[in-house]
Amino acid sequence: MRGIILSLLLVVAGASHYCQSAVAEERLSDYIRPLVGTHGEGNTYPGPSAPFGMLQLSPDTERDLWETASGYEYSDTSIMGFSLTHLSGTGIPDLGDFLFMPQIGEPKLTAGAKDDPDAGYRSRYSHDQESAAAGYYQVKLLDSGINVELTAGERAGMMRFTFPASEQASIMTDLQHFLRGNRFKLIWSHVRVEDPATVTGYHLINGWGKERYLYFAARYSRPFDSHRIMSDGNEVRYDSYKNYRFRSRNEAAGTNLQFLAEYKTHADEVITVKVAVSAVSAANALKNLDAGAPGWDFDAMREATRKAWDEELSRIQIEGDAAEKETFYTALYHCFLAPNLYADVTGEYRGLDSNIHQADGFQNYAVFSLWDTYRATHPLFALIQAERDGDMIESMLAHFDQSVDHLLPMWSLQGNETWCMIGYHAVPVIVDGYLKGVRRFDAERAYEAVKTTAMNPDYDGVATYDKLGWVPCDQENESVSKTLEYAYDDYCIAQMAKALGKDDDYAYFMRRANSYKNLFDPSVGLMRGKDAEGDWRTPFDAHEYVHLGDFTEGTSWQYTWYVPQDVPGLIALMGGNEAFCEKLDSLFSFGENDSEGLDDIQGRIGEYWHGNEPSHHIIYLYCYAGQPWKAQETLRRILRTQYGNQPHSLTGNDDCGQMSAWYLFTALGFYPVCPGSDEYIIGSPAVSEATVRLSNGKELTITAENQSDENVYVQSVRVNGKPWNSVHLPHKEIANGGTIEFTMGPTPNKAWGVAKKNAS
Amino acid sequence: MRGIILSLLLVVAGASHYCQSAVAEERLSDYIRPLVGTHGEGNTYPGPSAPFGMLQLSPDTERDLWETASGYEYSDTSIMGFSLTHLSGTGIPDLGDFLFMPQIGEPKLTAGAKDDPDAGYRSRYSHDQESAAAGYYQVKLLDSGINVELTAGERAGMMRFTFPASEQASIMTDLQHFLRGNRFKLIWSHVRVEDPATVTGYHLINGWGKERYLYFAARYSRPFDSHRIMSDGNEVRYDSYKNYRFRSRNEAAGTNLQFLAEYKTHADEVITVKVAVSAVSAANALKNLDAGAPGWDFDAMREATRKAWDEELSRIQIEGDAAEKETFYTALYHCFLAPNLYADVTGEYRGLDSNIHQADGFQNYAVFSLWDTYRATHPLFALIQAERDGDMIESMLAHFDQSVDHLLPMWSLQGNETWCMIGYHAVPVIVDGYLKGVRRFDAERAYEAVKTTAMNPDYDGVATYDKLGWVPCDQENESVSKTLEYAYDDYCIAQMAKALGKDDDYAYFMRRANSYKNLFDPSVGLMRGKDAEGDWRTPFDAHEYVHLGDFTEGTSWQYTWYVPQDVPGLIALMGGNEAFCEKLDSLFSFGENDSEGLDDIQGRIGEYWHGNEPSHHIIYLYCYAGQPWKAQETLRRILRTQYGNQPHSLTGNDDCGQMSAWYLFTALGFYPVCPGSDEYIIGSPAVSEATVRLSNGKELTITAENQSDENVYVQSVRVNGKPWNSVHLPHKEIANGGTIEFTMGPTPNKAWGVAKKNAS
Asked: Is residue A670 within 8 Å of residue A682, measured between CB atoms?
């Protein structure tokens, strides 16, 4: 009976929701399109998550393909089930912990294949019977007729299953499921039936991180009619005559475990499952669950999360049509999915040293895709999410304290360091945050961590770089990219040293920041590998894109532009503004690069590859060289062609929000080309009006008169009422709010923006 | 230099120790012979442990043989190394966690074989250059010339290695080492170099317990000259040109890890390693280490542990010659090795539910070999170690609280239930303790646990037993043994119910306690399997010893005597005292039982097998049937022939002290045939005088006039000055101390001890 009533309420609530949003006041959360980026390279997931939430319930269509890193590919036609955690936009799979799948009939224990879903618990589904919104995902499983709804709060989630009448309905939890990309291994798992309506368990994953523990807890809205634990396909139970020793039906450990909650259901019976995770213990997962979902009201949790999204999105209010708002707010949504809360309601979390720590005085976050997010995501946080950015920096400093190598995080994943990508880009996050007023952390402690990281004698050729002035290509892979990125990071350290009055350190790191000059080969006009003897890499192919070459996911033609800390210096090396701009022009006009392994970088315009981060700052370089109008046109073209409100709209991995943060800054008309410096570079706003609520509560209002898809060229700018004729916009000009007034037009105003500094 | 000085001190200290003990006052710890039981079936270990200590450093000669369950077999001629934890006297291997082995030359990473120790890190050794004492073990590794000394405190231990001069000396820690008996699996391990003189790590073992986590910490008296982590034989390090991503030299996870601390040593250089373990975390292992071994004084730790043993052993003071004292105090030592402290200095421990718990108000213990130790070990604790026994009962109640099946421990091992053996013998431990005044735990809570365990609907045929009155042999293996042991356990519950005024429960469990009668087949005069229809097992072989038969590690001839709760009832079933004693006589005169799998039960006299527990109470049954003199002679024969002060002296697995506790009670002249009742049965004292300091501080003095190896027959007894002519000795007679005065003689006094109760 309860099931029927709940189910009726659901229909009413669902219907009223959609009516409401059409007639009532605008809710920014309604512009969120979670399916954006799920088709192709975006690698986002469609399921619900609270802002920066601890868990991300979402359907998985794939587990073994490297390229379906979020578990869901829009073009797949069957769903394996619904797991509790997901990475947003990464290029490497992981998480996808603990798959829940409702079934009818004798439960299947393996997923089956995409081309034969009937062989396993997979079910066909249709996008026509699927919906995704802020804090909500729904899909009808066509093979069983079960309707599935998911919602998620900060530390707990709910799954609402509406069953047909069945003598044999079940909800399976597959503990060995995670997004393994066919390379990673489940080491161990454990499941425990705490009582006839509660299950806990954990698994230990040797995946992207070498050793990741995750526990879960699940409470069911009605006690199981019966339950089974399956291990390697066999029921775990004591057979009183066959077994030598007693065996509990209520717990098991192993590497291939499924739990089956079994029911007889009547038509439209609703069974709700509350879930939570913890990296610490099953007990903490239960605490997270009970604190995060004390009741059984699915719709209330959904509404609470939707409200949380309304509030988070309200940090930027824009004018625009529905499609523009959907694109913009979905980008903001994607920026606010990661890093993820990684601490239990008790404050405990599993640290990098595998010990359980208490986060005292801060919220602990995990999943730092720093090689991506230092560029625009964290600068966005510094601008409008400073409190969380402070927590994130505290989390990174805790990571440093727990690091046996005394290193800040590189690409950290739930108590693990993956060592993914290069550089030490926690540095620009910390320095940029510090210089822009992000507080909470102790500056001297942070500086110590930043400097110690940059001085590590073992890490990735840093010691040789320090000694020679470059990472030698005969001793270290990706040597040019490493040199260039170290030099930028070192520039950041120098800025913090200066701010803290450490003059010697400032000089030392500014010397290192100039190291980029050592790899610029004037004979080819490009950055080029150099060996320990000082000889250039020979033969040299400026378009070579190769694994373990001198460049990281790119070519010399792309990395040559990577001097954000000293663009004038780079311009000088290239022979001045004209030569620089001509070279930039040619980047966009090269033909197709047919290197192997390039399939997963899309958004390619010549050799400008917007689908990956090394290109993200490049268009803005026109602004430094007296031709900002070229940037304006190109930026607006990228916004139009490589973003949108459709599943296929993202041309590259969203990378925990970096692709989206690029969109947001660029659409607002400025971009942090060099985080750690005090300036943004003005581009071309794609919104006609925006109000940005800064972290300190002050408002920055951006207006763009005559803004349209044709009027992409900046005619003039006023900042805080002052005429502004420079592309350089110091953070301090807007730090306390204010106004930026653009006037746009259909043709370049070549006189605007060529000044080195604002004249007035 | 420090090394040399330490080494000189060692020689002096070592010499003075032995001189001292010869001339100074008697120290009971000097009678401890840790090697007793290491040759053959005893399965004890020779290394140091504090009383009931958390770790047991000891040499391992074997890892893969099931029968070398403690890791050390005296007849082996090479040592693999020294691991941190060991089980005392069990029949199944496990523990042996984390092997440390000092080496000279290029370190070997695998042990090599016994017949080819040079193939690995094994070293030859000689018993001539080996010594073992309370809290101390020493051996010279003949292949390397390294002298090894071990000591252990309550939660930390020390290893002192004296090296020859070497350009390449090392101390290896093999993380994949544990006592696997060729059946168990290491699931995962992790090692971490915390600083250049500190290492931590853990491993996860799927062994006797399905999921056992143990962490360790080690601090070295001088920083490594260099260090290496080896994984699958390869050094873990970042090769800057070959590796795609950075790899730390300082930590690794995997299934085959070794850590190498590397040194150049001068002649006689001493390097000391402090070690500790934790089931909770590496951080806690370090806390245990630093709290348990704050300094570097090996000899001080050894002396502290020796003193702790002096104090523990002083609970019983006996008269006797050196050999007698060595046998007696080594037995007492073995009784006080287990259960083991299983909580960190913080009070935290990993519970049966895998969660981390805080032991509030009690010390948590693990390793409960209850099928063995309920018989005499825990009754001994109730008598002279009540405070610890109370802690142990609290630990068992915590286990119950954490049990998903709501069961008290059966055979629990460090946060695991092994389900080893049968019955629910936590019950007699709790009831016997409760009735004998062991306190700390709440009686109602304990009763609830006891009763709930006995009413479990799933466990080992208990539900059918409750319904039918026996465990049917067509539905459950070991059905006769289970029925008999359940009946005894139920008798115990009834006694506690009575004490708590639960009359209905008393009647209910007393009915179950009579279930033994249902399996006595008068046509054969023996206990016999019965199926669910009530038909006897046919064919029936009274001497059959078979795996998964009707009996547990025994035959009908042995289990027929298992009615400790109602010996008069059994006597009546057998036709009275004469027939009963004749049948008992025949037990000792049967020829060799040549059943398969019997090799590991020794101490066989006919079908009385003293090497295993089902026989332990049998001799005392003569006392109930009017022929106590037969018991007296036989008991003394067993004491003389199956115990002693030599490595081969134990004829059966010591089973966490049960074999030894049998010795102690029997040597003192009485034995708890039926724990949970209020009485002991008087046998024949083998000591001429003993003073037992009871748990309440009162003293019980036992004297045996004319006691000798010939004068084994009790002539008369006085208890607290009163003439005592019964074999029955109520606990309350001695609970507040007092005297038992035996007069012994060379021939039976058949008039003594035949009264049902003491007449006076």
From this structure: yes
